[in-house]
Task: structure prediction
Amino acid sequence: MKFTYQINGAEHTLTLEKHPEGYRAHLGTAIYDVKLLHAKDGQLHFQLDETRHTAHLAHETPAKRWLHNAGRTLVIEKAATHRRGADTAGGSGRLTAPMPGQVRAVLVAVGNEVTAGQPLLLMEAMKMEIRIAAPHAGCITALHATEGGSVNKDDLLIEVEEIPT
Result:
């Protein structure tokens, strides 16, 4: 399996090969043996070569994730050339909570016009800040979250109607 991702703005290619003990990962010139030990509720327990790790994973969209491991937070995005249309332009514009958390800030109001990628709402989950961004240019048609409120995974947060070009 081959994946192309942007990590903190730099594009990388990750190739995973099934291996008897898990996977062999090729990232640039580096090669790692990876074994997934346990994954549940945004927590990943895995072994990278001989070292065990616990990482926290949060999703903003199917194409954008945050990975927090060993004191570092990485923003991981599918490279634009590999995004499916449903993830960006032409998507429903119904933005949901990627995981349970608390709404820290609502940055828009109903009727506001927004640009693709513009931050709309900030959440906190597992001591990480999660930025919910507009999937496409559009107009905010509904807000379902309030500042300071708690949300569950998949709760509807904001609706953005796409502006035709």
